[in-house]
Amino acid sequence: MHRETLETLAFRTGYLTLFALLLLPLLVVVATSFAASGRLAFPPESYSLVWYGEFFGDVRWLTAFENSIIVGVGTAILATVLGVLAAFGQEIDDGSRIGSIVGPLVLIPLLIPPVILGITLLMYFSELGIRGSYVTLVLAHTLWATPLVYFVMRSVFSRFDWQQLDAAADLGAGPIQSFVHVVLPNVKQGVFVGGLLAFIISLQEFVMALFLSTASTETIPVLAWTEIRQALDPMVSVVSTFLILFSLVALVLAALATNLEWVSRQLS
């Protein structure tokens, strides 16, 4: 057997093993969500949709689900705007002192433990009197989501033909017109992917939401944590299954809307 064949076989075995290790826990979660009993165990003794019925019949879970969607959409919009503008600004002003520090500044929230961020934001928002609102959760999640959008857009902008901006300026277009009519149409796929990542990050973020949410604004992860501390039943698996489903749907939408080959080419 040739060396290249052995290397290819080893590589495929490695990533298939890694894929299985990542996938198996998810399959266990989904399977236990269909348990008929009130005990969380794998494999379930019998299967039923009773816990899904409990979920849709529980106002508290539905409210948490609605809160997660509201915060996720708000985070996606704000993080996408900030990430796109930061990446665009650095690309056109990369040689200046300000442009050179934008990247490290955007990266800072990812380097700070979320517990520290949560405590700091809790103290700050409490002083402002806005703790527990949707605004505080959106701002907190935006701190984490914006760097992801920024790095996606930096990669996308690095392949953008900037001579198009010069041509637009020669034709009399102003900066805003050039950005809206020239830049955005060429990078809209990257913008969509960045916004989708921001939404998924917000949907699953737990630590900062635990510090900043109240009973009226608690998200799905926060409520799941509260329920786990009281009783370990299949409802937790039901909620986790919905989060997994949301992530898969988001990936499918990204594949359909942007073409995964285009995404991998932009990020390579």
From TrEMBL:
Pfam families: BPD_transp_1. Signal peptide: none annotated. One of its GO terms (cellular component) is plasma membrane. PROSITE patterns: ABC_TM1. GO terms for biological process: transmembrane transport. Belongs to the binding-protein-dependent transport system permease family. It is a multi-pass membrane protein. It is found in: Cell inner membrane; Cell membrane. The lineage of its organism: Archaea, Methanobacteriati, Methanobacteriota, Stenosarchaea group, Halobacteria. The chain crosses the membrane at residues 69-89, 101-126, 132-153, 191-215, 235-257. Residues 65-257 form the ABC transmembrane type-1 domain. This is Spermidine/putrescine ABC transporter permease. Keywords: Cell inner membrane, Cell membrane, Membrane, Transmembrane, Transmembrane helix, Transport. SUPFAM superfamilies: MetI-like. It comes from the Archaea. Coiled coil: none annotated.
